[in-house]
Amino acid sequence: MKNASNILIPILIAILAVIAWALLNRPAEEPPWPNRLQGFSFAPMRAEHDPTIKNYPTTEEIDQDLALLQGTVHAVRTYTVESTLAATPGLAAARGLNVNLGAWIDDDFETNETELERLREILAKGYRNLVRVTVGNEAILRADVSVAELIDYLERVRKMTWLPVSTAEPWHVWLKHPELADHVDFITIHLLPYWEGVPIDQAVDYSIQRFNEVKQAFPGKEVIIGEVGWPSNGRRNRGAEASLANQTRFLRRFLAHAEQERYVYYVMEAFDQTWKTKIEGATGAYWGVYNTDREPKFAFTQPVVRIPHWQELAGISIVMAILLLVFVYRDSAMLSSKGKGFLALVMYGISTAAVWIVYDYTRLYMTPATAIVGVLLLVGGIGVIVLVMAEAHEWAESLWLRKWRRPFPRHSVPDEALPLVSIHVPAYNEPPELLRETLAALAALDYPRFEVLLIDNNTKDPAIWQPVQAECERLNAQPSGPRFRFFHVDPLAGYKAGALNYALRETDPAAEVIAVIDADYIVRPRWLRDLIPAFQDPQVAIVQAPQDYRDANQNAFKAMCMAEYRGFFHIGMVTRNERNAIIQHGTMTMIRRTTLAAVGGWAEWCITEDAELGLRLFEEGHKALYIPCTYGRGLMPDTFADFKKQRYRWAYGAVRILKHHRRELLGTRKTTLSAGQRYHFVAGWLPWFADGFNLLFNFAALAWSIAMVMFPLQVTPPYMTIALIPLVLFVFKISKSFLLYRRRVIATLRQSFAAGLAGLALSHTIARAMFGGLFSGKLGFYRTPKLARAPAFIKALADAREEALFVIAFWLAAGLMMLRYDSYMLDLRVWVAVLLVQSIPYFAAVVVSLISAAQSLPAQLVGPMQDMTDPDLLSKPSASNQDN
């Protein structure tokens, strides 16, 4: 039955996915396309043409377009007689098409005169297929000319020809300037309800209403519709969605009414015009009934479907989801049905979103810019999928595991069988009173055979290290005998790893296990007695207990840090332990001495020598055991600056380890690493790499926003489906953190929030560490200071100065976005939301830094974390997992 759920759950969710696709793509009956249209707005530019730079099609290309329209339409409406477009009337006559001849009017009066002279020449040729003349297109709307100036142009053209003359403007311009009607032979209005934000279901009625208003306002004039249409792609304008289905719906509904009422109209427009992105944004390219390849964009008679070939897309998304599930299910024997169902839902969600976004993007016209963005999106999309998979997998295993496969073994070993343990305590410039507490706790260990080697490396001031040496001598005078050895070594290279290797050389030859703690740790008496028996298994090389802290009650800042630390040690490390893939950390750790010696000791090249050693031992086929139970507590950083330095070192070291062991982790160099170990060592650090790539995204987002401010007509917000990705990711990660903290860390709502705030505050630091580790191999060892003086308010701001600058930049960009002329657009508001969400981690850093400066803020604001000292409770999965 357990294996059957691996098949049944994906099948059930696949059925639900298909139903969802089907519901979103229900066919809708619409009126059929007329046998022959009244007219098309005709601009014969191909993808490579651009009239703004005087790049026009050839007469052969114009004739090909007219040949395509021949028999489908009575007339075409042109906009200019410039260049080769002046040949349109003659070419159209040969194809049996009438022409509403247009002359372009703008704010360049010299060009206007040239345009009118060319118009005069064409009219003089007496083409019998010319039915109307339109002087200017939305020239008043654009404020290129005044009403008086346009009237002058109109009167001049009326004297040139016996044909009826007009100008074309949106309906409201005619109502605002009724004096124009006295100087035209008919009225040409534009009905483009998309630009007015009218929802598709109201658009046709709205257009008819506006047509009737103009007709009633000018009862003595014929009213024709110079442009009527809807875009097939582009930005959402308030309630108006630009989509192929909506374009089909609007045109087929409107044309059915127009034919019935015998309107004279010109559909906007025959062919998509990619050059219009310069003046109308992305939407401007998608008003055509035919695409740039001269293929019809939609069905003229069949029922309308949002995505015509949705079945193929649904099939692709299901296949993709199954492939992802094969990966995440390959090691899910202990996962409950709820966990498998959750993973299936997430994988189907990922695949459906990916297919939908790719489909949407491929419907854009590809330019060098969109192609580059597409490649970047593809790379980023793959990264997002991998990240979400890893996060979802950890989420499922943390909440819905029926039982641990590798619970910590509990052996009862008689004293005479317990091995000699050598405890190594590296120290550098540590306060003597702090080390006295550490040594006193070690002296109180309930274990028969151990020694303590305290290695003080490179401390210059004798007043700091000599009292510690004296304390070791005093403890050796106790009835328990000489267990403490003190070494002051100066100089000593290799930082902490160098000190530990020095201690290893000085270790009692009879010692079988090396234990390491930091200089500030106070261990519980049963630390060795409870954990050393795990070495009865000859394959076990590492036994690890979590880091924990004893100063969380000092202030709110340390209480926040305490909550943040807990997540790694009681979520990530627990799931890693299931596949023998824990990250060894350099305190509260124990290593079999022979194994440590066999691999060459601690790596002095690495700033995080503890995690690197653990990976090396896994590569040699050794086992590690982890118990999520507190056996020792140390001190946390006193300031936010120190908190950042510590995390920078950890993240920097992680990148250096991955670079150094990349061939082993990728499997190109043979080791005994299992697939699960490789997975955890790569996927476990993915969130940190995500912070690094997020920094690149933030720079790109700010650059894009600057371009949107400087060039509002040319640069529009990213497509909404793409802009939503960071918002969805943020919600996903925050939801995961809150749920797992509440259930696995046993945290209150306040503590979960505090942990999330502290974690977000480190995002920029981790991002910088990622790039530092990738492109630099030099980093000095940052010792985390203890008992340091809290910073002043100004210094706290300075400690988060980079983050504060990002906050200002994001908020300023969001404010400037809202000052744009199109700030009412939904996609722009979504982009503003993206900018604000991206500012949250930076704002969190400023807030946490200020909290660290305010040492008077009580820890009670966060509340004390639950004591994690019961190994029986902590070694069990969540109680909710026992239902399957």
What does this structure look like?
The structure is a single chain. With 884 residues, the protein is α/β, with parallel strands linked by helices. Helix content is 50%, strand content 10%. It folds into four domains: 2-23 and 308-399; 31-285, TIM Barrel, CATH 3.20.20.80; 420-537, Spore Coat Polysaccharide Biosynthesis Protein SpsA, Chain A, CATH 3.90.550; 545-588 and 631-877, no CATH class. The protein contains 30 helices and 17 strands. An eight-stranded parallel sheet has the order 1-2-3-4-5-6-7-8. Strands 11-10-9-12-15-14-16 form a seven-stranded mixed sheet. A two-stranded antiparallel ribbon has the order 13-17. α1 runs antiparallel to α10 (310-329) and α11 runs antiparallel to α12 (368-399).
State the shape: elongated
Give me the number of helical elements: 30
The structural domain count equals 4
Strand order of the largest sheet: 1-2-3-4-5-6-7-8
Report how far apart the termini are: 11 Å
Number of strands: 17
Radius of gyration: 37 Å
Proportion of residues in extended strands: 5-15%
Q: Structural class of the secondary elements?
A: alpha/beta
- Biggest sheet layout: 8 strands, parallel
The helix content is 40-55%
Low-confidence stretches: 780-784, 879-884
Mean pLDDT: 92
Keywords: Glycosyltransferase, Magnesium, Membrane, Transferase, Transmembrane, Transmembrane helix
InterPro entries: GH, Glycosyltr_2/OpgH_subfam, Nucleotide-diphossugar_trans
GO molecular function: hexosyltransferase activity
Catalytic activity: a 1,2-diacyl-sn-glycerol + UDP-alpha-D-glucose = a 1,2-diacyl-3-O-(beta-D-glucopyranosyl)-sn-glycerol + UDP + H(+)
